[in-house]
Amino acid sequence: MSRKLSYREAMREAMHEALTNDPRVFLMGEDVGMYGGTYAFSKGFLAEFGPERIRDTPLSELGFVGAGIGAALGGMRPIVEVMTVNFSLLALDQIVNSAATFRHMSGGQFSVPLVIRMTTGAGRQLAAQHSHSLEGWYAHIPGIKVLAPATIEDARGMLAPALRDPDPVVIFEHAALFNMEGELPDDWSVDISSAKVRRAGKDVAIITHGGSLPKALAAAETLAAEGISAEVVDLRVLRLLDTATIAASVAKCHRAVVVDEGWRTGSLAAEVMARIMENAFFELDAPVARVCSEEVPIPYARHLEEAALPQPEKIVAAVQEMLG
Amino acid sequence: MTDHHAAAPPAGPVPWKKDFALKLLADMVRIRRMEEKAAEMYGAGKIRGFLHLYIGEEATAVGALHALSPEDNIVATYREHGHALVRGMDMGAIMAEMYGKREGCAHGRGGSMHLFDKATRLFGGNAIVGGGLPLAVGLGLAGKMQKEQRITACFFGDGAVAEGAFHESLNLAALWKLPVLFCCENNLFGMGTAIERAESQTDLCVKAASYNMPALKVDGMDIVAVHEVTKQAAQRVRAGEGPLFVEYQTYRFRAHSMFDAELYRQKAEVEEWKTRGPIHTFSARLKAGDKLTEEEFLALDASANAEVDAAVAFAEAGTWEPLEDLLKDVHTPAENAP
Ligand SMILES: Cc1ncc(C[n+]2csc(CCOP(=O)(O)OP(=O)(O)O)c2C)c(N)n1
Ligand SMILES: [Mg+2]
Predict the structure, then answer these.
(1) Which part of chain A has CATH 3.40.50.970?
(2) Averaged pLDDT, groups of 10, chain B, 338 residues long
(3) What is the C-alpha separation between B212 and A41, in angstroms, rounded?
(4) Torsion sign (Cα): B15, B17, B23, B26
(5) Domain that holds residue B228
(6) A108 to chain B: nearest residue by CA?
(7) How far is the CA of B190 from the centre of ligand 2 (A)?
(8) Which residue does chain B place closest to A53, by CA atoms?
(9) Could A166 and B332 be called an inter-chain contact, meaning their C-beta atoms sit closer than 8 Å?
(10) Is residue B331 assigned to a domain?
(11) CA B320 to CA B323: how far, in whole Å?
């Protein structure tokens, strides 16, 4: 048995469950309450859980993300929602200098069981200050975990283990996925430690995450029609990366294309490629390729924005070129 | 260069029982002796990195912390040796941490700027100026949501008042009526930048009051005033009146850190402020009121020195965290989850 629901509904259910099951959990962020959530993830929560636990904040990213860290230190299990990754830059100090460091800096005395959720990604013609994909930056930081749910199952299931995790977890939700619908099996279960093969194949491994997953799956479909069998690996967990699953897929397909909406230079894709070099170099029949965003602030006009981002056609072209 | 003239030294009778007065005096002396030794050990190459001494400002931490409960949360800055010691941390664990030894409170992961102690609820040792304030807001929020009696006292310098974090934090704490006591240690300088070169409004209480919270000013060199004002402030915060801001007007006698040539202030100004030194002025007041004899002072000083010697011996005898443990405490092992 399974049932159909959207990514948004899945995320909403996950938060609802967490708020219902654990009195220490509360949701805090800009417009999470009266407005119902910027993306309607928390619609109805204010009436149900009250203003203490569905806490609207002023425009104060540094302040309320830091307050989330403090509340976690004080025994609560906060879910802090930052409208988008772009605005999280105003809170970067607290995330990188406090949340990520306290465990180590205190010699193991203090943990920060905090979940920070934020929207990421382009594709909605919101131009250069609302379209960043900076999850690769966060994945650089020891002391935090970074998740990128890209399926209905993960949208439904990743929050609970993130809240159970004793350390800070940052969840990136790609805006292009929110209206996506899919089947959620009754017996779903997810972890926050492994990458997953979303489509099995044998000729090339397409390794991706987040909003690029549907694009990679579409590309694999196109390639199948041409007789090319592509495997699609969803990283899911951007830190700590599941190197074994990446290496296993490369060992099976002997070719790999990494797809990442981050900019190419210094990207998460670069890190995945490096791990392939380190762990599966002798399995390769061709140099690893990548499809990333073009090195330009994401432009507003639709055709320019589309041209700047990874697209199924670009992925198909990269695979075709690799296979000669 | 602006002169920051010092007012007359704190004076007048001490309205405390002798035991209590001597306890606070002893704590100031313990901090002073510990830090003098730390400076010496810095010179000897035993302590490295940044070392920010609190010398001259002891009345603030001692007077204020003795007005709080052991259950309260404390958030402090990188100039926190005194706070850590008064809170009840073992001097040996502090000294060993400065040495970078495994026996330090953070096994050498933090050093002088990052003293943490779960037992006494000391949440750092935060070396991003202003970085502790949002944490204090969150600790206050957690306390309020869990209906705890504890309050959160957050110490920070005058320099932090220029940071966005200060303004966001005071706004949130006042908006949500959180039990947070903002303790601003105004020593007139942020490194080499005098307050009037950093603040359009040098009356910091005016800034705090603009967030709709009570703001009190107190002579931070006068331990009696510090203690009484903090006690009153803490009571109000604990009673659920919301946050409160206290400005402790103090002065640092030593350089900002060990790398500071002090080009930004006159030696005469420092000397003038030393006439207000918290230890000798408090001692004089106690002696005048027959609450302290010279023998008693010498005895508590000797005891502080003995404690320092033991702390140094402990640090010297300490071991180095093995390199195999380099990656320890980045994530929390499941069995230690909070
Ligand atoms: C965000 C940030 N900027 C700059 C510094 C470097 N810095 C360390 S201490 C300091 C002065 C802070 O002055 P104040 O807050 O008055 O505290 P004090 O040192 O006087 O106790 C500066 C600029 C820092 N640690 N953090
Ligand atoms: Mg200062």
Answers:
(1) 2-185
(2) 91 98 98 98 96 98 98 98 98 97 96 97 97 98 98 98 97 98 98 94 98 98 98 98 98 94 95 98 98 98 98 98 93 85
(3) 33
(4) positive
(5) 18-312
(6) B329
(7) 4
(8) B145
(9) yes
(10) no
(11) 9
